[in-house]
Amino acid sequence: MANTLSGVFRNYLLSTSISRINKLGVLSDYAPGLRKLYAKATLGIPAFQEQRERIQHQMKNISDKFREKMSEYTSDDSKNMIFTEDLKNMIYISQDDKDIELVIKMMKRYNTQNKSLRFGNFIFGPVIMRLFYIHNKPELALECFKSDELSVSFDQLMSYQILLDLLYENKKYKEILEVANIIKAKQIEGSITPKNVVVLVLAACYKLKSKESFDYAIKLWSDLQNTGHQPMRRAVTFCAALALNQDRPDIALEVLSTCKNQNYTTIRNLKILALCSIGRIEEVIPILKSVLNEDTPSVISQVHTFNRDVIERIRESVKSSDNPEVALEFNRLEEVFKKQGNITENTLDDQLCSEIQQPPIRSNRDFVPRQQFQNRQQPNDSFQTRRPSYRRPGLADLV
């Protein structure tokens, strides 16, 4: 299958006469009220907020004096050191832009101090990114990530995910691709392919819906396939949907074939759209009929559904096919689906971009020591990297 994918993508990349018109007209712009991709719990936001409340309560009577002291410690002529607990406390009591500015100054001072005095393993990257997240500071988060003084502080997969999700929520899709390029350039030693990063990058490409973003997505996808990457289902659906929007159902079908479970609702709906687009409506009917054997009508949550806009697209294709047998069977199936609740009013776009719910990542792969970035010899520009050495994971990454 990898060879087939590579062949299709190679033919695409060499082609100069691809149509840029989206003829499907079903993958509309994402509803403003459904912007989030990853739920807050997957980013560790609730735990961070709980810790903020505890620290703010503990420092209620001394927080103002503490701020004044930290401001003095970060002045140019000060020789005082910023300790780990100082920085942690300042992050948790930060309330406004002035406090966040002080946190950044403290972080810079903290990074330049004598590293021999640091004996703890507290990782600040994800924590500071969560601070930017709850204050909705995408520009500042990106600026700090790109800063030479601070960039090493955010070399954790969770930091990447929080930053990219924050950019996604603020519709800064081009900036997501910029961050992705920086991550690839770093070639993280000691880490596996960051699957959540891939999902967010492909989500940004899908949102951009441009020829350029499609080229970017296909190049990334081809690289990942060549390195044996097993994509998450959401990555598959974003890439396939983008291919459909760029009038490349052939690529969409090949991308969808990489998903191990073909029974997912989004996979099934996208495959139907691709088949309709290439005029193979007779192959859609078996896909429609397959859910009748899988559903358990007594348990509503187990009913397999088709999106209303996908059903409408099938109806158009059936009509244009001028095949009485196919039309008769489709009409029969549609009536059954209406009775059994197999048709949802949600659009396919709504479903593709629905919020991802999953437990926060607790892994030793979150942390990557700085020295591991140096002397990188492998030229491959994909996200694929080598297996990490073991580091005992702690709760610090989540609080």
TrEMBL record:
InterPro entries tied to this protein: PTCD2
Disordered: annotated segments: 372-399
One GO term (biological process): mitochondrion organization
Highest taxon of source: Eukaryota
Cellular component GO terms, alphabetical: mitochondrion
GO molecular function: RNA binding
PANTHER family assigned to the protein according to its UniProt record, in alphabetical order: PENTATRICOPEPTIDE REPEAT-CONTAINING PROTEIN 2, MITOCHONDRIAL
Name of this protein: Pentatricopeptide repeat-containing protein 2, mitochondrial-like
Species whose genome carries this gene: Sitophilus oryzae (Rice weevil)
